[in-house]
Amino acid sequence: xxxxxxxxxxxxxxxxxxxxxxxxxxxxxxxxxxxxxxxxxxxxxxxxxxxxxxxxxxxxxxxxxxxxxxxxxxxxxxxxxxxxxxxxxxxxxxxxxxxxxxxxxxxxxxxxxxxxxxxxxxxxxxxxxxxxxxxxxxxxxxxxxxxxxxxxxxxxxxxxxxxxxxxxxxxxxxxxxxxxxxxxxxxxxxxxxxxxxxxxxxxxxxxxxxxxxxxxxxxxxxxxxxxxxxxxxxxxxxxxxxxxxxxxxxxxxxxxxxxxxxxxxxxxxxxxxxxxxxxxxxxxxxxxxxxxxxxxxxxxxxxxxxxxxxxxxxxxxxxxxx
Length: 322
Description:
Elements: E1 2-10, H1 17-27, H2 38-64, H3 71-83, E2 91-99, H4 104-113, E3 118-123, H5 130-144, E4 152-155, H6 163-179, E5 186-192, H7 196-200, H8 205-220, E6 225-229, H9 242-248, E7 256-260, H10 269-272, H11 274-285, E8 290-294, H12 301-314
Parallel strand pairs: 1-2, 1-3, 3-4, 5-6, 5-7, 7-8
Helix pairs in contact: 1-2, 6-8, 6-12, 9-11
């Protein structure tokens, strides 16, 4: 048997301060995420951030929480379910989260218990970043290092410029624009931010985001403005900042705006609360009139077809021809 493990960032188990504190403690203790020596960072994390941020973040999670739990968890489950049976009889599809549950180690064990001797790790990050793609693979390989019997492993490469990904984005954006009752004067592609320092150290994330935006703009036949969201701390981050651009655009004559988040495989707190709710409010407070957030690919048909194509390609040689 062959296993496919979809991996996304993670989410708290509940929209309350205690669950968010557990999640943030794990997330912000990852040396890939915060590249500050632990001896300097942990007192700040434990003494300040985990005392103040969980309550505020829990309120934000409550705005987007669903009956199925967090949107990210529900959508990732649905993505895995949509792929079941589409990749061949010998392929088992599962999902895991880098932080929170279900954990990567447990899901690798579960796949092996079902007879998977080969496993494709599929971090759902179109653009490679050490703080996302690499840490997901790190966690998997750290668990594999504890096993006497290891499966054969492949990893899904970044797909920021893959025609299947760009085509899926194009179809999704065009469908979203067609549903609007207004014509946006501008479209902002908002990617998750990273400290500028990571770019200087050789992380290709910024360049891959720009490549995605350039290819999508060409496919749509209209310009896209790139911005970076979710800044944290005092360090200089990739610019321009999404919130700053949302404040500035009305003054530049853009009062009808659409925003999308092509770096996210599934809608989550950062898209549904930070962009669709808070971003809308920022734009309108600055004089904007009409605002639309265009959903991520999620488990809609274009997104599932893209995942099936990308994953199917990586499984070549492991499974019989389809």
